[in-house]
Task: inverse folding
């Protein structure tokens, strides 16, 4: 009788263990909103933000467009949690902390790799997003190249895939630099603004458009098109228009 009871208990424990998936507590779940109260530094959301902080730290400055992208990324990631306001604040705090040092960067990558080991497409999208942040100010320094390359290697991204991403971004910005500048009239059209708009209205319109077109790293994972096709062209067009208008108005 005791043996039978033990066998039943072992069987129950086996099936519980087989069906218990820790990934539910460390990955972002797109099918439902979970309340997360653990350590974000061990969660996919926190690891993504931590790597974004390292890339932002690489050139030591954050341009206005990059700041807007970061803000919307915090909001987008937090929106997938039941306690979104709390998560957003924690992500911001984690970002500020992780921007101070590169010492733990490889450890962060290793944690993220362990959560995405069987999803190479997701890691490609993460890498593409990080490169987008590095390139967004139209410059890609040697330090940014070194940092993103280290991240790519630690996430086990194939060298040819990383090189192709770099080539795509460089080609895009080279073509943009050689293209004809837009007119002031066109700039107002792009920014969906009027020449009579004040600085506050222009900034509001700018932020609204950046929010509309920024690449969503979470829901965008697995999409067929890359960030260049989906967002960067429009974002750079919006940013160029805004900068031209600000310069014309002396803002």
Result:
């Amino acid at each position: 009788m005791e043996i039978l009871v033990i066998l039943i208990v072992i069987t129950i424990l086996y099936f519980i263990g087989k069906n218990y998936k820790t990934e539910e507590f460390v990955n972002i779940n797109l099918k439902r909103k979970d309340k997360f109260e653990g350590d974000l530094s061990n969660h996919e959301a926190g690891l993504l933000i931590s790597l974004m902080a390292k890339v932002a730290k690489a050139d030591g400055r954050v341009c206005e467009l990059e700041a807007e992208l970061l803000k919307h990324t915090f909001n987008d990631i937090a929106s997938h949690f039941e306690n979104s306001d709390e998560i957003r604040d924690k992500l911001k705090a984690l970002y500020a902390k992780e921007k101070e040092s590169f010492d733990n960067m490889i450890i962060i990558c290793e944690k993220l790799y362990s959560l995405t080991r069987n999803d190479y497409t997701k890691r490609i999208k993460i890498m593409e997003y990080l490169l987008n942040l590095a390139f967004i100010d139209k410059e890609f320094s040697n330090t940014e190249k070194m940092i993103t390359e280290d991240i790519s290697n630690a996430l086990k991204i194939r060298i040819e895939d990383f090189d192709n991403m770099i080539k795509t971004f460089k080609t895009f910005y080279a073509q943009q630099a050689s293209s004809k500048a837009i007119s002031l009239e066109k700039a107002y059209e792009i920014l969906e603004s009027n020449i009579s708009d004040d600085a506050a209205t222009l900034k509001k319109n700018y932020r609204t458009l950046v929010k509309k077109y920024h690449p969503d790293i979470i829901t965008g994972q697995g999409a067929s098109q890359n960030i260049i096709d989906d967002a960067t062209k429009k974002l750079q067009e919006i940013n160029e228009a805004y900068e031209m208008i600000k310069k014309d108005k002396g803002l």
